[in-house]
Request: fold
Amino acid sequence: MNQTTYFKNRILDYYFGLVPYAPPATYYLGLLTNPTFQDGDTPLEPVGNGYTRAPVQNSKAVFSTAVGGKLDNDLEIQFALASGADWPQTKFLALFDASSGGNLLAWGDVNVLTGEPATVKDGEKAILKSGSLVIV
Reply:
């Protein structure tokens, strides 16, 4: 996953003593339907049919220690069950600091789920396997 300018600025401001920063206790992983976006654009997520961002606890139990400028998940991350209809095709994963709204921190291709853009079918759930959420 690539960090957004917003997230990079928070890290730099913190490390150079310009502002205090307290990382959230929980991050939220979202699926995005828009094909591309730049900083400042609104990411588009599925709406309805059971879709919610997947909570990801910010802890050593979930994330491994960064190595080589990369950090990844040690535990599987599961989204809610799609219910009522399929979710629309998604092309990106996104890491947010809130369960809705909030700030987009990082994003990457959704192909870590399926090898291609993904459609979560009614009655199924998107699952991100251990080691597949890589933040650089």
Notes: Strands lie at 2-3, 26-32, 54-57, 71-72, 77-78, 92-96, 104-109, 127-128, 134-135. DSSP finds two helices and nine strands in the chain.
